[in-house]
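chain below, 189 aa
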Amino acid sequence: MHSTSIVETQYRQLVEAVDALKSEIPVIARAADLIIHALEAGGKVLTAGNGGSAAEAMHMSEELVGRFRTNRRSLPALCLAADASAITCIANDFGYERVFSRQIEGLGEAGDVLVLFTTSGNSPNMVRAAEAAKERGLKVVAFLGRDGGKLKGMADVEWIPPTPHGPRVQELHNWAMHCIMEIAEARFS
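prediction:
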């Protein structure tokens, strides 16, 4: 296949997904409101994901602690996928399915928000994270893909981008996360 054809296909998939987003705007606003409310009340944001979704989770946390586009106070956020020592310790001692839930047990408090990024929604460690968060009184925002998988219905706010294509799902997760960052900066600047 010619490079131009591949790029055109990728472009067409993205345009189709973006064109279908208009009806999804209220869901992103609800996720932002839940996160902003928790931060205003003194809570923190915990994020998690596997693989490319772990990079999305790190991206969200660093922009809350650091900045998105404008200077404002640092906001409390922590990516549970970023600490290799904790992940390998927990995976070795408790199993990989507990790498996030164990951290939530130690770090999560009622009033915090857990933000999960996953293109399948079926990873056992993500399902266990949502369960642990609910047990500890955290709110859960889930950015899902495909049909939502096993995580569908477990979050306070969940969003499945309108596309069956994994790469487009991740791109749209980033779009939604950037919308939330802009709202946070408007509120906390």
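The radius of gyration is 16 Å. The first strand starts at residue 45 and ends at 49.
thats it, cya
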